[in-house]
From TrEMBL, chain B:
The lineage of its organism: Bacteria, Pseudomonadati, Pseudomonadota, Gammaproteobacteria, Cellvibrionales. Its main location: membrane. It comes from the Bacteria. It comes from Exilibacterium tricleocarpae. This is Peptidoglycan-associated lipoprotein. The gene is pal. PANTHER family: LIPOPROTEIN YIAD-RELATED, STATOR ELEMENT OF FLAGELLAR MOTOR COMPLEX. Residues 57-168 form the OmpA-like domain.
Length: 430, 168
C-alpha cells in the first residue's frame, strides 16, 4: 500500500484565499478515450473537503486524451468490482470505469480504487492508498497518474508542481505592482506565495531534484540571481554584478547554474559551480547571448543569440567551446528548451509577425507551430514530455496556457486576479 | 513645464503618429478608449493682493527630454535624441551629477532577451554621453526589459512608448 506522509511543507509562505487559476479546455485529441469515474464511496459522516473523483476526472480531461462520462448520465454508482454491471457502461460507450471507496481511521484517509476495462470485462488496477486530510488532493493526483500510465503507457505528471510569477496592482487606484513567486499544483490549485517583492521577479527555474528554485529578483534595485530552498524558504543571493544577472538554469546534475552576465560589458553565458563558487565564461561574442538551457546529458548549453543579426538558437559544446547554430527557419527564435526525450527543441518562434510556441525536431530541423494565441512566451515542458505550459495574453491579461507537444490538446489557465507569467514545470517529485 | 517642453512633446507625438502610420502592426489590440478626467479648477474667490516683489525673476531652466525612444529590436540612438542628449552632456559636465539610465523594451519577444535589449539601449545612451565628454563613472545603467512598461497595452503606439531609455 502506498502511504503519503508530509512531503514538502512550505514555510514562510501564505495560502491564498481563493484559487487563482481556473482551467478551460479548448481542444481534446480527436478521439479521446471515454472513461467513467463513478462517485467514490465515502463511509464517513462529515463532508470531505476535497472531491477525489472530480479531481481525477479533471486531471484526466486536462490531458486532453480522456473524456469523463458525466456522472448524471450514469445508471448506477458501483463502489467496487463485485457490483459492476458492464452493460450499464457499454451503453454509455465508456471504455474504462474507475470506482473507489474512501474511509477514515484516526485521521488517516484510505482510498481504495479499481480500474476496469469495460469491453474486456477485466480489472486493470486495484490499489489502496492513504494520507492525511491535507493530502486528499495528492491522493487524487496519484490515482490520476496511475490511471494515465496504465492506459497510455506514459508516466503521469498530475502530481507535479508549477512555479510562476504573478504581477498584480498593489491596490485599487495604485500604479505600483506587487510581484509574487507562486508555487502550485500542476492544475493551478493550492497556490502558495513563496516570495513577494515590490520589484520585478523573473525567470524561475527548478533544481533537478525539485527542492530549490533559482530566479532573478530586482529587490536590490538591479537584477540579481537568487536561489531559494522550497521546504525552508531560505534564500541566498548568488550574484551581484553590474549589468545583467539573469536567466538561471540548473545543470542536470544540480551542481551548476548557467546564467547570463554582462559584467564584462556584453551579455555572455556563464556557469556558476555551486560548490566552488567559481564562474566560468562560456560564450565570447559581441552579440547578445542569453537564455541558456542545458542539454539533457549536461555536456552542452543551448542559448539565444543575435550574432547572425536576428535572435536564433545556438548550441555550445562545453568541452570544446564549439558553437553551432540550430535554428534557421524564421527571423525570431528564442528561449529554447530541450524535450525530455532529447529529440525536440521548444522555443518562442515568430511567424508572420506573431509570437508563438513552436517545436523543432532536432534531427530533421522541421519546425511546428503549436499555439494559435499571440505574444506567447516562456514554454516549460512537463517531465513526461506530453504537454508544455507557456504564458500568453488573453482578454488583456497575462495568463498561463498549456498545449500538448503534438498540438492536439489546448488548455487555458486564466488568472482571476493578476497577470500570470513565466510558468516553470517541476521535475517528477515522487 | 515650459513652452519648449510642450513643443518637444508635440513633436514626439507627430513622429509617433508617422511611425504608426507607416508600420504594419500584426499583433495589435485596439487601444483602450479613455475619457479624460474632468479638469478641476480653483473656483474659490481670492483677494487680489498686489504685494511687493523684490526678488529677481530667475532665468527659466529649459527642461530637456529625459526619455529616448528606439526602434523595434534595435538599440541604435535615433537622430532626434541627439540634440537633447548633447544638452544633457553639457549640464552633466558642469555639475558632475550622477545619473541612472534605465533601459526598457516592449512586451514582444522573450523576457530575458528583452533584458539584454534594454541594457543595449541604456549603453547606447551612455556611450553617446561619454563621447560628449561625460565621465562614465557618473553613469549607472540598468535594464528592466519589458517588466516596467510606460504604457500597458498590446498595440503599436504603446510598444513605441515602451521601447525607451529613461534618464534619471
Amino acid at each position: 500500500m502506498k502511504h503519503f506522509y508530509l512531503g514538502v511543507v512550505l514555510t514562510l509562505s501564505s495560502w491564498m484565499a481563493t484559487a487563482e487559476l481556473t482551467i478551460e479546455i479548448q481542444n481534446f485529441v480527436e478521439n479521446p478515450t471515454s472513461i467513467a469515474i463513478a462517485p467514490f464511496g465515502w463511509e464517513g459522516t462529515t463532508t470531505l473537503p476535497e472531491n477525489i473523483d472530480a479531481i481525477v476526472a479533471a486531471d484526466l480531461e486536462r490531458s486532453g486524451q480522456f473524456r469523463a462520462v458525466p456522472q448524471s448520465d450514469m445508471l448506477a454508482f458501483p463502489k467496487a468490482g463485485d457490483t459492476i454491471y458492464y452493460r450499464n457502461w457499454r451503453v454509455l460507450k465508456a471504455e474504462y470505469l474507475l470506482v473507489g471507496t474512501i474511509s477514515e481511521a484516526a485521521g488517516r484517509y484510505r482510498v481504495t480504487y479499481e480500474l476496469y476495462d469495460v469491453f474486456g470485462q477485466r480489472r486493470l488496477l486495484a490499489q489502496p492508498i492513504d494520507g492525511s486530510v491535507s493530502q486528499l488532493r495528492d491522493l487524487a493526483h496519484y490515482i490520476s497518474d496511475s490511471v494515465y500510465e496504465t492506459l497510455t503507457g506514459i508516466r503521469g505528471a498530475f502530481s507535479t508542481k508549477i512555479i510562476y510569477v504573478e504581477a498584480r496592482k498593489a491596490g485599487s487606484g495604485s500604479n505600483k505592482e506587487k510581484f509574487r513567486l507562486i508555487y502550485a499544483d500542476a492544475d493551478g490549485a493550492r497556490e502558495q506565495v513563496i516570495h513577494e517583492s515590490d520589484a520585478p521577479i523573473m525567470s524561475p527555474a527548478w533544481s533537478p531534484d525539485g527542492k530549490q528554485v533559482a530566479y532573478v529578483s530586482f529587490e536590490t534595485s538591479r537584477a540579481a540571481v537568487f536561489r531559494q530552498e522550497l521546504s525552508s524558504g531560505k534564500r541566498e543571493q548568488l550574484t551581484n554584478f553590474k549589468g545583467l544577472n539573469g536567466a538561471p538554469a540548473w545543470s542536470p546534475d544540480g551542481q551548476k547554474l548557467a546564467m547570463v552576465l554582462s559584467k564584462d560589458g556584453n551579455p555572455e553565458i556563464y556557469t556558476l559551480d555551486l560548490t566552488t563558487r567559481r564562474f566560468t565564461r562560456i560564450t565570447r561574442h559581441f552579440a547578445i547571448d542569453t537564455e541558456p538551457n542545458w542539454t539533457n546529458d549536461g555536456k552542452g548549453i543551448i542559448f539565444t543569440s543575435n550574432r547572425g543579426g536576428r535572435p536564433q538558437i545556438y548550441q555550445v559544446t562545453l568541452a570544446s567551446g564549439r558553437v553551432e547554430r540550430l535554428t534557421f527557419e524564421g527571423d525570431y527564435n528564442a528561449r529554447p528548451r530541450v524535450s525530455p526525450d532529447g529529440k525536440h527543441l521548444v522555443m518562442v518562434h515568430r511567424h508572420n509577425g506573431i509570437y508563438h510556441i513552436a517545436t523543432q525536431e532536432l534531427v530533421s530541423g522541421d519546425i511546428r507551430v503549436l499555439t494559435e494565441t499571440r505574444l506567447d512566451e516562456s514554454p516549460s515542458i512537463a517531465p513526461n514530455g506530453a504537454m508544455l505550459m507557456y504564458a500568453t495574453r488573453y482578454n488583456g491579461k497575462g495568463i498561463l496556457a498549456a498545449v500538448s507537444l503534438d498540438a492536439g490538446v489546448k488548455v487555458r489557465l486564466p488568472s482571476k486576479l493578476g497577470d500570470a507569467r513565466e510558468p516553470a514545470w517541476s521535475p517528477y517529485l515522487n | 513645464m515650459g513652452i519648449k517642453t510642450l513643443k518637444h512633446g508635440l513633436g514626439l507625438v507627430c513622429v509617433m503618429a508617422v511611425l504608426a502610420g507607416c508600420s504594419s502592426a500584426p499583433e495589435v489590440e485596439e487601444p483602450p478608449v479613455t475619457t479624460p478626467e474632468p479638469e478641476v479648477t480653483e473656483s474659490g474667490s481670492g483677494i487680489d493682493d498686489p504685494g511687493f516683489v523684490s526678488e529677481p525673476v530667475p532665468e527659466p531652466v529649459v527642461e530637456l527630454d529625459t526619455v529616448f525612444y528606439f526602434e523595434f529590436d534595435k538599440a541604435e540612438l535615433l537622430p532626434e535624441a541627439r540634440a537633447a542628449l548633447t544638452a544633457h552632456a553639457e549640464r552633466l559636465k558642469a555639475d558632475s551629477r550622477s545619473i541612472r539610465l534605465e533601459g526598457h523594451a516592449d512586451e514582444r519577444g522573450t523576457r530575458e532577451y528583452n533584458m539584454a535589449l534594454g541594457e543595449r539601449r541604456a549603453n547606447a545612451v551612455r556611450d553617446f554621453l561619454v563621447l560628449q565628454g561625460v565621465s562614465s563613472s557618473f553613469i549607472e545603467t540598468v535594464s528592466y526589459g519589458e517588466e516596467y512598461p510606460a504604457v500597458v497595452g498590446s498595440y503599436e503606439s504603446a510598444w513605441e512608448q515602451n521601447r525607451r531609455v529613461e534618464l534619471k
